[in-house]
Records
---
Amino acid sequence: MTIEQIYTGCLAQGAYYIQSGNEAVIIDPLREIQPYLNKATRNNATIKYIFETHFHADFVSGHIDLAKHTGAPIVYGPNANPAFECIVANDGQIFEVGNIKIKVLHTPGHTMESTCYLLFDENNQEYALFSGDTLFIGDVGRPDLAQKSDLTMNDLAGFLYDSLRNKIMPLPNHVIVYPAHGAGSACGKNMSKETFDSLGHQKEVNYALQDISKEQFIKEVTHGLLPPPFYFPKNVMLNKMGYEAVETVISRGLTALSAEAFEAAANETGALILDTRKAQEFKDSFIPNAINIGIQGDFAPWVGTLITNIQQPILLVTEVGREEEVITRLSRVGYDQVIGYLDGGMDTWLKAQKETDSIESITAEEFKARLLNDTVIRDVRKPNEYQSEHVIGAENVPLAELSEQMQAFSKTQTNYIHCAGGYRSMIACSILKSRGFDNIVDIQGGFGAIAQTDIPKSAFVCPSTL
């Protein structure tokens, strides 16, 4: 028996390849399916089933394309009602794969179709639990994503409480928990950096598995949830209703454009220009109105949070050679309308002597030298980061809320903008620049660099205690 966790850091997502004998299954596959096909071929295996733990919100799964290429049926748990052919399994149903068995454990709560898969090894012993978004390492799935008019967040949290206690906690302590996500995913709020653990250890350390009442659990699991990224409902619908083949998406996006053709395409289509270079490369010279979201950060989640139209035509400026990687990572979150890229990258634009723009970016020491009592400082970190410690006088405008809080930025004074390390602040600066703000300055290295100076700082004090 082979179990391989295929972890994708950008999405903090774990897919699984499991093989016994010459039969294999895939659990929660990513959209680009070729690696799974290659793995099965190398191992002389046939993919027998494609298991989905639920309709994912944070990425577009590869289940449909994988089924088309292999003929393997897609398996969901009870309550699933997709627009394509699949097996909607019964609670407790057993699937045989080589010399092992996989048992369906219906665990509603994160969503109503959420299901875990319990693997029995060759000795018919409970060995591993593929827990999807029901149980994470250090956390559980958020219960607010599948709310409906007749089903509240508290209702879902109550179902989750029952699922954990009736289906998961009675399992032996030695069972290995393999979740669908780790730290950084927006599907939970406080996941551990570890990507698997024993169930016994989770019973000891995971707050959601402690001896608490259902009321306490509901209060705890619903407290402090940040709004989900905009693209989550769109991804659920793609996973439920179907989508364009990823090969088609990549082929369309890999249209190389000269500077003239790129400029014409932008003017004719109204496409968003997405520049995925590093922040400190972008700042010096970029195409006017381009948005910078660096490929080397939390790229896909920030695209999904900030680009609210998932059907928006997109033109790419990338590091040379990374065009297909960018298109692939966009497709993982359903942004399929890339219509081309600037062939040769930004050098092509500069050689054609096209118009460029820039953003001033200064060091923390330079920022210190410019500080006055009325300096406009905007901290685009998350509220909990800001509350932990911040520059005195800085106002918190979380990047995820930037469009709704444009009024927080001065139109007359210089806006000094920082995040934790410089990635998010350049995203914010590029968006502001595209909205007509020319009086913006990025602080290189963010609060990490500011913390090394003697610029006055403070922790947040709740107003109720003043």
---
Amino acid sequence: MADPIPPGTTETRGDTHIVRFAVGLDHPVQRVWLAVSTPGGLRGWLAVAEVLEAHLGGAVTLRWPNTDTVVSGTVTAWDVERIVEYTVDVHGRIRLHLEPGGAPDTTVLRFANEFRGTDDVRLDRLTGWHDHFTYLVDALEGKPADWSAWSRERWQELRDRYEARDFDAT
């Protein structure tokens, strides 16, 4: 089965990296917005929002259920049904920008994660976000992530592909 997520890209300046993805989703903006900006939506593909004050300057605390990672920070952009940005410790700036796709009831999610770290951290982030966007596609189809079934082996295979840049150009 083909991977529904196009490979991410990175831009690096010194030890600052920006990971980017553009993901086409066969769902309307309003539905994708709920998945990226509400505790119930985030739980299905990304993290448990232990705190999420849904407004600019609001507090956010996210706990990744497949690891012991907990991050806290601030909502640094909030434009309803368009842009949500969380700036959190460890993961840096996480920006999700939604726009209508070319066909009715489709959305393009433009994603950026800006953070500081080594090249290994950059590869880990590419892999992690790719993995999470696969979960997002499933969650939007009514199949939220079963975190107990998360596979380190699958993640490592995907990371190895990023390290080798072994993705089809099609």
---
Amino acid sequence: MGKDSGKTEYVQSSTSSEPWSGQQSYLTTGFEKAQEFLNGNKPNYYPGSTVVGFSPETQMALGGTRQMALDGSSLQNAGLSQAEKTVNGDYLAEGNPYMQQAFNAAAQPLVDNFNKQIAPGIDSTFAKAGRLGSNAYADARNTAEDTLTRNLSDLSGKMAYQNYSDERNRQAQFTAAAPELAQSRYNDMNQLARVGMAREGQSQAELTDNVNRFNFEQNKEIEKLRQYMTIVGGGSYGGQGTSSQPVFSNPTQSFLGNVSTGLGLANGFASLFN
């Protein structure tokens, strides 16, 4: 005899839950407030500017720097001009108004030495020999004078060369320094700009604080509502759901069970008549 097989059926059941009765009115209030917020005009953008304008110091620094850039550097222009004059040889000895005075001061000891020592010595020597006015005397005087002239010429040449060399070096130094000197004109403006930046930084911090306060007020109601719903809702507002549970049935076992039940009932009735 074959083995009877059973079958499985699924029985669905529905469940429904509602929020606690004491909770329902608060939930309704929360939902109504949420609807009001949705239909309202918040949040709004901060009504004022969120950017700090330039401070007076920065305005002055920018304007001054712009004007300097447009005008150019007088120092740099002067440096270029000096470089050109140096190349053209404008600062040779003849261009130095103090050169003659310096030469006279340096030459005077040579002239004094000639007039007070060399010339009188020649005269005295030839006078003692009784030969003043002789060719030898004239040659001695001419030689001494020529020596003086050469010494003075050498002195003049050396001084002129030194003047030329020193002046060229000085002009070259100032020409090279001209850009740096020109840049130094902006130092005052840079310091003024730093003052402006400090003031703007403080103003920006104050503005940021005002914007944060404004945003807080804008979001205060919705944030309070969010916290309110979290408290009264507890994360659950009720709902409905369905579930299925399996039920196993075996026809053979059901039949035998019915037979057994029937026999048991029959025996029970029979015992009533014994």
---
Amino acid sequence: MQKNKENSFIEGSVFTSLVKFALPVLGALILQAAYGAVDLLVVGQFGDPASISAVGTGSAFMQMITFIVTSLAMGSTVIIGQHIGEKKPKESGNAIGTTIVLFVAIGIVLTIILENFAGNLMTILQVPEASYEKAIIYVRICSGGILVIIAYNVISGILRGVGNANLPFLFVGIACVVNILGDLLFVGGFHMDAAGAALATVLAQLVSVIASLFVLRRQKLPVSFSLQQCRIYKVELKKILNIGIPIAIQETMVQISFLVINTTINHMGLMQSAGYGVAQKIISFIMLIPSSVMQTVSAFVAQNIGARKYERASRGFFTAIVTGCTLGIFIFLIGFFEGGLLSSLFTDNAQVIEQSALYLKGFSSDCILTCILFSSIGYFNGCGKSIPVMIQGISSAFLIRIPASIFFAGLPDTSLMMVGLAAPITTVYGIFFFLICFVWLRYSRRKEDRH
């Protein structure tokens, strides 16, 4: 057996533990973001506009499915982390076994649905006629390998639950390399177009899963697990779903709200629409920092809550806020003053760059605020209290973000900078929402201690 490389969150320096976990998580997220752009980049070099449209729509749809599954898997990450903090390796193994069976079932159901209704889904998404058949082929090939895609994300979620973020980083790195090589071979060499891009994606995930299983056989993990535990344990299933379902619902609603905002901005004009598209590409990378902070806080808090080290869990939360906001200030300055420079990396159209920079100027303060909000989300997820996270996500999306965006977009002589302000305004609401939730949580704990 190799030396145990899991990150114990219940002892040692809080800051060191968080950084050691957060850096590989951030690295994995960056690789995943780059991974999603590779298919489109290669198809753009060797295909036609119809192929680009097909892969863009198909990959966005499959990423949404993967995103929802990953959100649901957060329930497993939290429960496994809590069991480790409780020093209950057998229960951790039961949670892993339940997770495997649960997501295999989900994968089979999704495969059947997507294979049979890919055409209907592409019609709903209003895929252009020239791209329609190619988009269907892309989705069907990806859905044929969705069990592999789910397996990769579930394995990563389990490993983060036991405190290991290095291996998921390694596995996504392997997948990224294989995907690039596969795209060059199938799309560039064999001229398989969108189908080749889909095949490369599935192959990359398969190689990553095989590599992960090989490596895991040689790892000493702080859990007691055997294949006999691959069945549904009702107690563990209830815990996983109680946490995972609200998170998945919240993330789904947030994504829908961004689609509504995109539609609103499309009505402002072609240049505004294109500028917003470029800005969103930049923001997708900016948001990786608070996303890595959220995942780190979730794992840290889960283990310490399991060990009943509530004060240490709180220290981890505040340390994450300070660290994240420090980085957020630096990113805010770049986004506010150099948005045009960032935008020029994606396009050379002066008008599009101008519109993108305007949106980034309005949005940029969110780079600081989101680190506070995402740390709060991570804290409540780690505590197993995902209902407040769901309520906050849905209410902020439909009561603040969408109405504010529509209001700013409809003002006389408005600009994308005004629409961009909807993001930090929404985040401020979320921060105040969680302040109330923290007061409620502290009151509840004091009440439990008295009894």
